[in-house]
Amino acid sequence: MPGEILEQQQKASLVYSETIYKRLSKYFGRLKSPLKYTKDYELVIAVILSAQCTDERVNQVTRELFKKYRSLQAFADANLDDLEEIIFPTGFFRNKSKQVKGFAEQLIKNFDSQLPDSIEKLTSLPGVGRKTANVVIGEVFGKAEGIVVDTHVKRIAAKLGLTTETHPENIEYDLMEKIHPKYWRRFSLYLIFLGRKHCKAHKTDCANCPLQAKCPSSILP
User: Fold this and answer.
1) Which tens digits make up the pLDDT trace of 70-92?
2) Residue 97 clears pLDDT 70, i.e. is over it
3) pTM of the full predicted structure?
């Protein structure tokens, strides 16, 4: 009996998350990463810089950064002081500069300058955690091994009742059980855009939210 109840709950979660996905898909249409890049490794660098920083600011910084450092080897050979000066506006610039340089060095040394297509291998590189690895695998390789969990996903997933976890990795595993794998790649991107447009941390716009009728945290009846 407990097993049957658990199975029913899981089916209900899959149906609920599919409804959410389809509503957001219809509302936002096809989305792509807001971070601007032209080379695969540049996406990794942009995601590293995006920690505790807006995508808009990151795009401003990488415009100059990618113009100065035009190859992976150039990043590996970069002077840290020079990197820090450019990366400064993104915050935590000393740590990020070390991660960017270390990432370039290790990608060249361990993977012959080619981005690996697995979370395990990607997270072996400096500055690359599960969130970054999931973003890269989805954007570069068009597949999903997990679900991106950033501050928007963490907040909105809880509001939607999809998780009660608080640690990003636990949230990810929770969502992976409640969302069909075919939706993993884009589900979080929809939540991120929803968080920027309607479900903001400091103010919610439930009246115009496409999930208003389905969200248990809606302030509207």
Assistant:
1) 999 999 999 999 999 999 999 99
2) yes
3) 0.90
For the chain, the C-alpha Rg in angstroms (whole number) is 19
Cα–Cα distance, 176 to 162 (Å, whole number): 10
Closest CA to 124 of 110, 142, 139: 110
Taking only the tens place, the pLDDT of each residue in 158-179 is 999 999 999 999 999 999 999 9
Report the alpha-carbon distance of residue 62 to residue 86 in Å, rounded: 9
Question: Can you give 9-73 as a three-state secondary structure string?
Answer: HHHHHHHHHHHHHHHHHHHHCCCCCCCCCCCHHHHHHHHHHCCCCCHHHHHHHHHHHHHHCCCHH
Alpha-carbon separation of residue 166 from 38, 157, 169, 174 (angstroms): 34, 10, 9, 11
DSSP secondary structure letters along 59-127: HHHHHHHHHH--SHHHHHT--HHHHHHHHGGGS-HHHHHHHHHHHHHHHHHHHTT---SSHHHHTTSTT
Assigned token pair, 187: 């589900």
